[in-house]
Design a protein that fits this description.
The complex is a heterodimer. By secondary structure, chain A is mostly beta strands. Chain A is built from no helices and 11 strands. The chains are: A mainly beta, B mainly beta.
Chain lengths: 115, 111
């Protein structure tokens, strides 16, 4: 168990809808990362938050947004969903915000199916 | 554009042999390179980290090398076991303030 909790495990919705994915980092970790993993794209970095502030942005679509709350949990909001958004969404956490030198602890993921 | 390539989508080996996985990159100067293991339907799990000024790192049956001239990392699992069957991902982090993952190599160790 990595200590990172993601909910829900599965989400099935329709095109055009909006969903929210939730992530609770490991105790003591201040930085949260969101990734998208689809069959044809591999694991793609979306966005990073550190102590409530956006720290780095990757390949995140404008239809997607995220935030990190004072209790350090994070939410990823996906709107105007398209079929191509169907994927596994992972959250990871680290103690400090530095990429690469930290071990990232990943949650079990949320599987999103857009029908 | 920046590219990370892992040698093959799938690698099948016999139990007891050494598995060697390759991660090549172009147009990138990573300061850190990490290897993760991912089982089906689960999140990646960290295995090893190597810095750009390190040539080799070992942990139990695992060994990783990092050649910044060749722009390549090799990941070895010695005395492989069926329990080592999984997808292995390499990840690069550098000055771009992001982390990029390869597509992964699916390793199957047959008894």
């Amino acid at each position: 168990d990595s200590g990172v909790t993601q909910t829900p495990k599965h989400l099935i919705t329709a095109t055009g809808q909006r969903v929210t994915l939730r992530c609770s980092p490991r105790s003591g970790d201040l930085s949260v990362y969101w990734y998208q993993q689809s069959l044809d794209q591999g694991l793609q970095f979306l966005i990073q938050y550190y102590n409530g502030e956006e720290r780095a942005k990757g390949n995140i679509l404008e239809r997607f947004s995220a935030q990190q709350f004072p209790d350090l949990h994070s939410e990823l909001n996906l709107s105007s969903l398209e079929l191509g958004d169907s994927a596994l969404y992972f959250c990871a956490s680290t103690r400090t915000p530095d990429f690469g030198k930290n071990i990232q602890y990943f949650g079990a993921g949320t599987r999103l199916s857009v029908l | 554009s920046q590219k990370i390539e892992q040698n093959s989508e799938a690698l099948n080996i016999q139990e007891g042999k050494t598995a060697t996985l390759t991660c090549n990159y172009t147009n990138y100067s990573p300061a850190y390179l990490q290897w993760y293991r991912q089982d089906p339907g689960r999140g990646p799990v960290f295995l090893l980290l190597i810095r750009e000024n390190e040539k080799e790192k070992r942990k139990e049956r695992l060994k990783v090398t990092f050649d910044t001239t060749l722009k390549q990392s090799l990941f070895h699992i010695t005395a492989s076991q069926p329990a080592d069957s999984a997808t292995y991902l390499c990840a690069l982090a550098g000055g771009n303030n992001d982390m990029r993952f390869g597509a992964g190599t699916r390793l199957t160790v047959k008894p």
